[in-house]
Automatic annotation (TrEMBL):
PANTHER family: CLASS IV SAM-BINDING METHYLTRANSFERASE-RELATED, METHYLTRANSFERASE C9ORF114-RELATED
Record-given protein name: Methyltransferase C9orf114
Domain of life per record: Eukaryota
GO MF terms held by the record: methyltransferase activity
Alphabetically ordered keywords of this record: Methyltransferase, Transferase
Lineage of source species: Eukaryota, Metazoa, Ecdysozoa, Arthropoda, Hexapoda
Family as reported in the entry's similarity comment: Belongs to the class IV-like SAM-binding methyltransferase superfamily.
UniProt xrefs under InterPro entries: Alpha/beta_knot_MTases, NA-bd_OB-fold, Put_MeTrfase-C9orf114-like, tRNA_m1G_MTases_N
GO terms classed as biological process: methylation
Keyword Transferase: yes
Biased composition (Polar residues): 1-11
This protein's encoding gene: LOC117569926
Organism of derivation: Drosophila albomicans (Fruit fly)
Start and end residues of each stretch annotated as Disordered: 1-50, 403-467, 473-492
Record keyword Membrane present: no
Amino acid sequence: MSAITAASRNTKPTEPHKSWKKINEERKALKRQRKQDKALKDLQRVQDEEAAAKDATEAAKTVKPNPSTVSIAVPGSILENAQSAELRAYVAGQIARAACIFRVNEVIVFDDVGVATARETKRSYEQDDAQGNASATVRSSSLQLARILQYLECPQYLRKFFFPLHKDLKYSGLLNPLDTPHHLRQQSKFRYREGVVCDKQAKDGHSYANVGLLNDVLIDKALEAGVRVTVKMDPPSETTRKQRGTLVSPDEPRRETGVYWGYQVRIAHSLSEIFTKSPYDGGYDVTVGTSDRGTSVHEVPSKSYEFNHMLIVFGGLQGLEEALANDEKLTVDDPEMLFDHYVNVLPKQGSRTIRTEEALLIALAALQEKLQPQHADIETDLSDLLPRSEDTGVTMRRDVLVSKKKKRKLEEKPDSEAMEAIEATPAPTPTTSPKPAPKPVPLHANPFNGRAAQAAPPSAEEADFEVVSSTLGVATEAKTGVADNEDLSRFD
């Protein structure tokens, strides 16, 4: 009896049995709760998206305007005046260097010969000549100039992706590097970088880009591999090892930081296409033509060229007049009518002609004080984030530097043992040096021996030489008292 009582005490009270009706009601209530939670989450997500869109709209209203731009147009025929392939490449390098030094934003390579004049010497740039589209052909010199300009502007770590081996780039290794701010080193910490989209698997809506670092960067857009992009680097995060970035416009680095971000290259098939195919809305508001027949640049007032998008056009071997004559679409006779200003950048020139690569430097330097941009670049101190001039060049290995430091220390530190050994060494006894062998007597007397004997210094046997100060000669000359008008023929 006691065992039955103990067993009844140890057993837990059983839960009341639920009916199927109650179970279904609980399930329905749980389902309704889940739907409500999901609806609240969707509502919160929509509100967040609306807030983000509102912020983006407000930011777009307050976004900084793009800084004013300067474009230059040079004829491709200037390479045909070079005597060799090396010089042709070097001329293109000079143009690229000048464009970067003066912060040019667009370089236009135009054909000043004309399709009708040189159709037989042209080859296709955008499509095959067999299609019969004359506007799609370009002269080989213009194509080579444009290709070298693009090659030099591209950062070094991206060139292998965009420029395969080509005969136009055969001598590109001889050219001076541009060393522009967007040619960043691996250790640079600037927040904007140029990159190329990699053919690498990434999560949906994302892709990887090579921006010149050890590892690829995950960007926020899914793009086709091989596309050049500008990436804004996100601050490093402690929660993830992957470096992330945001895809931005190529104009943003210059707009936000004031840093020069290279130039764009465009090919124009004629002089008229320079103006009609401008990439800017509304075209160029100020155009300048350069010629020795123009107005002197010294007569132009300072800050008188107010512009937003300026264009400066340079002529070739025959000047802008020849380019105008070869353009079938233009009906004017005087090139001055094509430009707002027609200036002579170097009056009273000493040479009969000025080469285009020389005129480029002269004109951009002479027009600097004449320009007044509507939206100037902001000035920020980014010297700690960008490569500096002392960073350019070959860096020595650490072992070489250490060995040089050790060698310098050994040279500066005196060796006491060596000094004691030198002091203990007895002085050498003077010995009579053997007399030199007599010189052979020439068969014929030298007529210049008289003058040579007068100017010849005493031999080592006659006098001992010693190093004297340079001021001693002045004192000796003062003692001799040689007058300015005295006959000096004896010194001849």
